[in-house]
Design goal:
Elements lengths: L32 E5 L4 H6 L1 H10 L4 E7 L14 E5 L1 H4 L6 H16 L4 E4 L4 H9 L4 E5 L12 E3 L8 H11 L14 H8 L8 E4 L11 H14 L4 E5 L8 H8 L8 E5 L4 H9 L3 E5 L2 H8 L4 E4 L5 H4 L8 E2 L27 H13 L6 H6 L5
Parallel strand pairs: 1-2, 1-4, 2-3, 4-5, 5-6, 7-8, 7-10, 8-9, 10-11, 11-12
Helix pairs in contact: 2-6, 7-10
Length: 391
Amino acid sequence: MVQGAAFTPRHRVKSPNAAECDNPTLMACVPQRILLIRPSALGDVCRTVPILASLRAAYPNAQIDWMVRDSYVDAVVAHPALSEVVPFPRRRFARVLIDRTVRREFLQWLRALRRREYDLVLDCQGLGRSGLFALLSGAPRRVGPADARELGWLGYTVRHRIPRNAEHTVERMLALLRAEGIAVVEDMRLYVPPEAGAWWRGRLPPARYGVIAPTARWASKCWPMDRWVMLAQWLAEERGLPVAIIGAPGEESQVAPLLAAVREENGARIPGGDLVGKTSVGQMMAVIRDAALVVANDSAPLHMAVGLDRPCVALFGPTDPRLVGPWKRPGAVVQPTMSPDRSPGAYRDRAQSDAWIAGITLDAVKRCVDAQLAAPAPLNLAREAQGDCGE
């Protein structure tokens, strides 16, 4: 069922009188109960935080909740602008058509969602499922992009056309706010859950360290593993940065050569730590927050690094960094020259494998690493806001 996080909501308010907000096409009243819909993917959830920050600045007394996949709750649960999370158990609900018990749970979840009586729902996912949830929320004003895919736009009472100059996915979401007359706050800060910060505090290396995130959901986004091995060795031996290797559960096989190098006691040993599959989302955020550098493919850890204000290097293959790159960090991107007969976006093509991203040379990554390390140190607003241990 719909539930809040394990903390006291910080902005709980009463629902407004429905009669005051009976025109769903006009922002004639100040919304008091707002639902932000962005369930997945993890990197996209991290990039959606500026929407939350903007909503809180515009409506300081409103109840602002976020529907997010249950396994990604850690990414937003500690944000001070959030009232509550509405966990969406996607994996369990995937059985809704074949399991009677799950079907009953799903219906209970929907009824609980509707009982929250939201008066404004903002769909930042723009897909069929998220549009359906917006519709079923029963909110009188349901806002989303006019070009929402999978007929998701049918769930909205207000459909905004996104300007063509809003290329980046963050800018597209912010365009929804601008169309609503809501002032934009360009604040993507992420906040590490206190328990995750405490977990990493007990394991924090005594010296500076780097983080490498060598995995991604699609093979076409993954830089060849042998180069990750050489990069990790170079970082440790030439730049004094032993590395922590991070990844999700089930990705261990993708990084086997790198993990073997980390564990190797003889020969070209790489100092560092194997954290692949060993952290929660919140713990991964804690590891990234305290790192001197993060090097990643186009994946969630990259966007965590941006939200946690860490120097980062982003390796891009077929995906277009103008659309999905590290927000406001164009100098952090390394990408091979694109052939005129190929265009970004074909990353789901299994036949493509890693042929494109393999065009990134080790030397190119080293140059970008040195540039990022030599740049003025980030303000680390995430640490400043949370204290040294995120508590």
